[in-house]
Every structure is written in structure tokens, then in C-alpha cells.
Specification:
Keywords: Cell inner membrane, Cell membrane, Membrane, Transmembrane, Transmembrane helix, Transport. The chain has helices at 3-32, 38-43, 49-59, 65-77, 91-96, 99-126, 131-145, 148-162, 178-212, 215-222, 227-238, 240-251, 254-264, 270-280, 283-310, 313-316. It is mainly α and 317 residues long.
């Protein structure tokens, strides 16, 4: 690997770690300033002030915020993410039960959205200026403009309430046959794919068009090579860098949109657990969930940077 590329990647990793440290401080401060008293929330309104004060002392809520942050960040560095206020169990054990479901939803969405977006982007680029291209461009821009919660609500109203094709609630990979598995994931995956496919297709179209306008591809077409073969054999390999970067950036959206989708469809994933923890003032779970989402987001951004650097012809010289 080129030493310059390696140096740039190391710089990206360093900036990512610094960003994660800043995020951890912001997350801890914001969660600590949430309205309400966690101890009072756990004990209920009938609890006496003495009982609430004792529980606050037990949970360490009476300590200064900087001291609690230092202890929390020190525990994380040693693999100790704290204990749940509500369940009195290690938060790692509680969160680990939900991680597979969230990554399964993200994985299925990726497997569906990436090939579909690439096909739409290549088709629009090859039919540039045609009615098909204009319809695809207008369609993708319209979908991007619609918030995912509205797409999810309309999907539930149409496909679950009116047509009864799919369930309104998705309980994930329960013990069911393949058809039931597909029906359970249909609406959440459809909602997430709407925005992802639109974003990736637009960026793929732009990357392919840049290659189609290049002189080497014009020469290839003049030699009698079929347009589809020229695109797949010559344009697509040279556009891998921008397309991979677009895919990574679009997939990073998953870790924001999945919070809304899991809540609407009652999906038993990490995002819905974080929402419940916010309602219950279970701060350790909220903090760990946000850190996990932030870490995944930064990893995808790092992969996007690596793809851009690795396929940049100027850096290969």
C-alpha cells in the first residue's frame, strides 16, 4: 500500500477516535441533563425523599458530573459499561441481546438496497436525457424529500391496514417459515430502502456519467463495443471509488433512520431499546446505545474515506 494512502488512513482513524471521545463527552452531559430524576423515576412518585436520596447516592447521581464522566469513560476503557438502573444488570448483557436484531435488519436492507441502487443508477446514466432517466431522477429526488416516518406510516396504512399483505408490527426473526420471515421484514426494509436506494442511485448515476463523458470510453464505443458491455467492463470498474464512497455514506444513514423505523414497527432492536431507556431514564443503556451507533457511523465514514483513497488514481502513482 502506498505510504501516502496509509498515512491518510491513519489520520482518518485518529480523527475518528478524537470525534468519538468528543461524542462520549456530549452524550454523557446531555443524558445527565435530561429533565426528571432517574431515582424518582425508578421508585415512583410514592417514594419518600429519604428513599430517593439513598438511591441517588447508591447510583452515584450525587457525584459531580465530571467525576461521573471520568469513572464512566474509565470503565468503558476496561470493558465495564455500567449497570442498568432499571434492571440492575450489566448493560452489556442487556444491549447484546438486541444487537443481532438491529444488525440483521441493517444487513437485509443493505443486501436489497445496494444492488437495486446500482442497477437504477447505471440504467439512468445509460439512458441520460431520456424519459426513463427523467422519471428515475424525479422519483429518487421525491423519495429523498419524504421523511422516513411518513413513508413508514403510509406503508402501514396501505399494506398492513388496507391490503393486509404484511403485519404492522415486525417482531424480527421469530420461529417461522421463510415466507413469514419475508413478511415480517418487508415493511421495515421497504421503508429504509426508499431513502437509501434514492441516495445511492443518484450518486451512482453521477459517477457513471462522469466515466461516460471521458475520452477513453468514447473511443471504446467508437470501436463498436456495445454500450452495456462498455459500461460494465470499463466505466463501472473506474467508478468503483465514488460508488463505494456513496454506498458507505448512504449506509451510515441506517443508524439514524433505524431509530424511527424500529419504534414505528415495534421491532425488538437496539434503537427501540434506547428509546425505552430514555423514557425510563436508564442512563447507562442510553449512553452505551448512542456510543454504539456513533461508532458504527464513524466506521462507515472511515470505510468511505478508505474507498475514496484506495481508488484514487492520483494517489496510486
Amino acid at each position: 500500500m502506498n505510504q501516502l494512502i496509509l498515512l491518510l488512513i491513519l489520520r482518518r482513524i485518529g480523527s475518528g477516535l478524537l470525534t468519538l471521545f468528543i461524542v462520549s463527552a456530549l452524550v454523557f452531559i446531555i443524558t445527565s441533563l435530561l429533565p426528571g430524576d432517574a431515582a424518582q423515576q425508578l421508585l415512583g412518585q410514592a417514594a419518600t425523599p429519604e428513599t430517593v436520596a439513598a438511591l441517588r447516592d447508591q447510583l452515584g447521581l450525587n457525584l459531580p458530573i465530571w467525576q461521573r464522566y471520568v469513572e464512566w469513560i474509565g470503565g468503558m476503557l476496561h470493558g465495564d459499561f455500567g449497570t442498568s438502573f432499571a434492571n440492575n444488570m450489566p448493560v452489556t448483557k442487556l444491549v447484546a441481546q438486541r444487537i443481532p436484531a438491529t444488525f440483521e435488519l441493517a444487513g437485509i436492507t443493505t443486501l436489497v438496497s445496494v444492488p437495486l441502487a446500482v442497477i437504477i443508477g447505471i440504467t439512468a446514466a445509460m439512458k441520460r436525457g431520456s424519459l426513463i432517466d427523467r422519471m428515475l431522477v424525479v422519483g429518487t429526488m421525491s423519495v429523498v424529500a419524504v421523511p422516513e416516518f411518513l413513508v413508514a406510516t403510509v406503508a402501514v396504512m396501505v399494506f398492513a391496514v388496507r391490503l393486509h399483505w404484511f403485519p404492522a408490527m415486525s417482531l424480527g426473526a421469530t420461529n417461522q417459515d421463510f415466507l413469514g420471515y419475508l413478511r415480517a421484514y418487508a415493511l421495515p426494509v421497504f421503508t429504509l430502502c426508499c431513502v437509501l436506494v434514492a441516495q445511492m442511485a443518484r450518486m451512482t448515476r453521477s459517477a457513471i456519467i462522469n466515466q461516460l463523458d471521458s475520452s477513453y470510453l468514447e473511443m471504446t464505443l467508437l470501436k463498436g463495443v456495445r454500450p452495456l458491455r462498455a459500461v460494465l467492463r470499463h466505466a463501472l470498474p473506474n467508478a468503483v471509488g465514488p460508488i463505494a464512497n456513496a454506498i458507505s455514506l448512504s449506509l451510515s444513514y441506517l443508524f439514524g433512520g433505524v431509530i424511527i423505523i424500529e419504534t414505528i414497527f415495534s421491532y425488538p432492536g437496539l434503537a427501540s431499546q434506547m428509546v425505552d431507556a430514555v423514557s425510563n431514564r436508564d442512563l447507562p443503556i442510553v449512553q452505551l446505545c448512542v456510543m454504539l451507533f456513533s461508532s458504527c457511523y464513524l466506521v462507515l465514514l472511515l470505510l468511505a474515506d478508505i474507498a475514496t483513497l484506495a481508488f484514487n488514481p492520483k494517489l496510486k502513482q
